[in-house]
Amino acid sequence: MKILLLGKNGQVGWELQRSLAPLGELVAPGRSDADLCGDLSNLDGLARTVQAVRPDVIVNAAAHTAVDRAESEPELTHTLNALAPGVLACEAAKIGALLVHYSTDYVFDGSGNRPWTEIDTPAPLSVYGHSKLEGERLIQAACPQHLIFRTSWVYAARGTNFAKTMLRLAQERERLTVINDQFGAPTGAELIADITAHALRQCLRQPHDAGLYHLTASGETSWHGYANQVLACSRLMHSAIKIKATKVVPVPSSAF
Fold this sequence. Notes:
Number of domains: 1
Distance between the termini: 48 Å
CATH class: Alpha Beta
Helix content: 40-55%
Radius of gyration: 19 Å
CATH architecture: 3-Layer(aba) Sandwich
Structural class: alpha/beta
Shape: globular
C-alpha cells in the first residue's frame, strides 16, 4: 500500500507518521519540498503530486486551523480548507484512491445541550467553520471513497493547543479566566492517528464503510474544567513547569 500524507508536521500529522508507517510505503512531502508538493495553497502542485505518487490512500492532515486569524484571512482559509481538499478529492477519484480528511466541530453553531451527531445539520458561525464545511462537501461530491473525521479540542505534545496555552499562561499569571459554558471532548492526536490507521484499513477491505464520522475521545468537559485538569496534572507530575496561577476563574463566553 502506498500512502500520501499531507500535513506531516502538524499535531495529527506528526502522529500519523508513526501510525501509518507500518501499513506500507509512506510518502510525506513538506511544504517546501522541491520534488513533491505538500503546500495546500499550491493547488496545481497538489494535483501534480497525486498524479506523480499515485497513492492508494491520501491522508490530508493539513489545514488552516487558526480560528481567530481565519476571520482576517478568508481567502487563504478558503483555499487551504475548501479548495485544496476539493482538488485532492478530484485527483483521488481519478485514480481510485481513498481520501482521508479531518474536519471539526466548528461546522456546528454550538447551540443545544447534547453531543452533535453525524446526521445533525451543520450551521457554522465562523470563517473557519464555513471553510471546513465546504471542504467536506467538495470531497463528498467528488470522491465516493472518503473518510471524513470531525474531531474537537485536539491536543498533543507537539504544536499549539489549548492545554499548552494554559500551561504557558499559568507560568505568567496568578489568575486565569476561562470559559465555563462551552463543552467538548479533548481528543489526543495520538488517538486520532491510531483510529485513522485502523479505519482506513477497514475501509479498504469494506468500501461501503466510507463516509463521515465524528471522532473524539469519550466524555466531556468545559474549557474551565479542562484548564483545571491540565494544571492539576502538571502539579501531580511534578514537572519542571513552575505553575504561578493559584486560581482559575470560570466566566461565561459573553465575557470575551
